[in-house]
Design brief:
Layout: H1 2-17, E1 24-35, E2 40-42, E3 45-47, E4 54-65, E5 68-77, E6 81-83, E7 87-103, E8 108-130, E9 136-158, E10 161-172, E11 182-195
Antiparallel strand pairs: 1-4, 1-11, 2-3, 4-5, 5-7, 6-7, 7-8, 8-9, 9-10, 10-11
Length: 198
């Protein structure tokens, strides 16, 4: 949870500091789901699919030079899933991207992005583990480096408010707990654009 708070804090700092040199800033709340290949067996061990469940998250981008900029996002499974039908778990994805975003008309825009990040899978144990400093958690994490690619279409129904159907392809390195390293998150973000051409 502390990592999530740190990522959200960094996002907000970027949003507050970036106006000094930015041409456009977008912030949004996301909702959607995750898709992946089905279960598989490896050396007699069942590797479950990671897909399914509702995902929520936050994202923001800053355009510095024309239509080019930087984007950051964090998305997590809203409720815990059951790993192998027994162990509660929750995946969390956070990434940093280069973005190309263009507004074609007053009502329609599009974006494409690519970058790197990490997947943190939290396996909940039911008991709390505490360190020497008194920091306690009821989960253990398995974190994997990933690359991501994606895009979306922005629709501006009212002034600078937008609705963006979107898709992300996550390529997770060494995702040994699950059946595949390729995951697709799809959903919709609702957000607001500060600045930019309207």
């Amino acid at each position: 949870m502390r990592r999530l708070v740190a990522v959200v804090a960094i996002c907000w700092i970027c949003v507050l500091v970036a106006p000094a040199c930015a041409q456009q800033i977008d912030v949004a709340f996301a909702g959607g789901s995750l898709s992946s290949p089905g279960n598989s067996f490896s050396a007699g061990t069942l590797l479950p699919a990671e897909g399914g469940g509702a995902f929520v998250g936050f994202n923001g981008d800053v355009l510095f030079k024309g239509n080019l900029g930087a984007q950051i996002e964090v998305n997590w499974r809203a409720s815990q899933g059951l790993y192998g039908g027994q162990l509660p778990y929750r995946p969390l994805f956070y990434d940093f991207n280069a973005i190309y975003a263009r507004r074609f008309t007053k009502l329609v825009g599009a974006e494409a992005l690519a970058g790197i990040g990490a997947e943190s899978i939290r396996f909940y144990q039911g008991t709390y583990n505490c360190d020497f400093y008194g920091n306690c958690s009821n989960y253990v994490s398995s974190t994997h480096f990933m690359g991501d690619f994606g895009g979306g279409i922005r629709f501006y129904p009212y002034k600078s408010f937008f609705v963006r159907p979107e898709m992300r392809l996550y390529l997770v390195h060494n995702n040994v707990e699950f059946s595949s390293a390729r995951l697709v998150r799809y959903g919709v973000s609702i957000g607001y654009t500060f600045g930019g051409s309207k």
